[in-house]
Amino acid sequence: xxxxxxxxxxxxxxxxxxxxxxxxxxxxxxxxxxxxxxxxxxxxxxxxxxxxxxxxxxxxxxxxxxxxxxxxxxxxxxxxxxxxxxxxxxxxxxxxxxxxxxxxxxxxxxxxxxxxxxxxxxxxxxxxxxxxxxxxxxxxxxxxxxxxxxxxxxxxxxxxxxxxxxxxxxxxxxxxxxxxxxxxxxxxxxxxxxxxxxxxxxxxxxxxxxxxxxxxxxxxxxxxxxxxxxxxxxxxxxxxxxxxxxxxxxxxxxxxxxxxxxxxxxxxxxxxxxxxxxxxxxxxxxxxxxxxxxxxxxxxxxxxxxxxxxxxxxxxxxxxxxxxxxxxxxxxxxxxxxxxxxxxxxxxxxxxxxxxxxxxxxxxxxxxxxxxxxxxxxxxxxxxxxxxxxxxxxxxxxxxxxxxxxxxxxxxxxxxxxxxxxxxxxxxxxxxxxxxxxxxxxxxxxxxxxxxxxxxxxxxxxxxxxxxxxxxxxxxxxxxxxxxxxxxxxxxxxxxxxxxxxxxxxxxxxxxxxxxxxxxxxxxxxxxxxxxxxxxxxxxxxxxxxxxxxxxxxxxxxxxxxxxxxxxxxxxxxxxxxxxxxxxxxxxxxxxxxxxxxxxxxxxxxxxxxxxxxxxxxxxxxxxxxxxxxxxxxxxxxxxxxxxxxxxxxxxxxxxxxxxxxxxxxxxxxxxxxxxxxxxxxxxxxxxxxxxxxxxxxxxxxxxxxxxxxxxxxxxxxxx
Length: 720
Known about the structure:
By secondary structure, the protein is an alpha+beta fold. It contains 12 helices and 43 strands.
């Protein structure tokens, strides 16, 4: 058992290149958690102890010394009934709650097996509360996982108002002071059809320099409230020391509301986050005597390198869940979705006309999107809830169409927005099965939302969804979700806890679908990208990368998502038209190599030359599948700031030990570009080319060749 006492104030453990440190402050008894690259241990700067200077020297003696280092507990929590934290934090942060002052360190336990390491740091509160910081690491992994447990061992109930999953302190250890002008916060912004814009700001720009006397906490808190976790920002954050070249990053499992907070009171910076709190997301949780509460998991990584190195480490945490998908998904089959062909008015005749043409290609899945269900004349799209087949469009129901698709060698897929019921449906009137807030039905636009905590609702949806998929022979399910619930719903001790429980039930229903239909591929779609976070992605074979169907931003968004989700789980649209130029087709088709191909549009109307372009692109994609699935990404860009009028060029380089995929896109701004990118170490040769450009390798540099504006090319390279 590791010790943390006066003789052993620090415990370090090397996680294959990252050292995690548990340090106990002799002055306060506080145990702080931090980490750094193991190879850089010798570059750690001894921190200054106290602040000095005219602004400090003139203070009354009773106010001194003013300590430069004030460690913060490796667990954070706040209970109802205790005072709010000071330091001008009310409404902005619940860190540093008064309850923490009474904590005492209890134990630090190390549990090692051949495959995993688990470190448990336990602290106690005299009122009978036990909290545990849990770190778990799979040997050889580039990331580790953190969560927090709260145990009420008192004789009275209590109410948690705040319990983050992790609290990382000591950023940065490579500067003895406050690391002026060397710390930056990285985030990824998100909006509908504009997902994953990388945002970087210095801590000075964020106004996070410490106060002159450490009397007021500086805070940057951000997150999302509601049931679409990827709105505004992805549940992801990183800090980097741009002088030392070290990055600390975190990705949350967050199906609903979440928050991340960067703060400082003294020299060092803290990073924490997880569930929402009472003042951000209306969450609190009653814990009865003898009961416990466990926070969601946060994935952390610390790397010596750049943003791509960090993101490779963090996204590697998603590989295990992707590997658990049905075996036929591992080859990343090509998908056709008829949404941008029929725009909500599919018919059996049109589907089979397109399918006969697709049967000549490597396409494997044909998805029937919205419009297959019955709706009143004149109604628009998304008439959701009743899910009765439109027999006018599908004579004999969906089964004959599915059988005909399978005869052509295609796996049929079906769209559902299963969590909502829209106005005009019989389901919309089943108000006792729908979510409420403060006693009133939650209605967002034309939608009510099923309460999936209700077993009767679960069975109703099982009949409508699971039975439909099984009885009609579908092998693929697209789950859509097109608007967000508010901060909370009724049915629990707090609105935020009601929302958390409801979303847990939603995920349990998806897990049930997978159990009952084990060979089914499931697509995680929420207006495109609003649920691209680890817990939803883990339940599904892939996620819709965006609702960007034909815009020039598609390669930008697709490349952004390499840093947030696995490309093997990123389904990318390419919509084709009979009148498209070959250059426009190549621009869109090459973008799909940044993830999984999802075709749509006028396939059946293409002439021989344009159809041959589809065939050539899919042949290239099939060769690229191993590196799309198993590679590591480097992103190279020289872009303007506008996405609606993009300028410049982008090259995505993804490689394994033996293969490399290079996908280059140009945009506006000038008539021609010639992108040049460095290659990984080793000797490489070009094995396959898709597009017009002629590449050249000089030493370890790839010259992509001359490319006109809004054009694309892709290369496969082999190491030799």
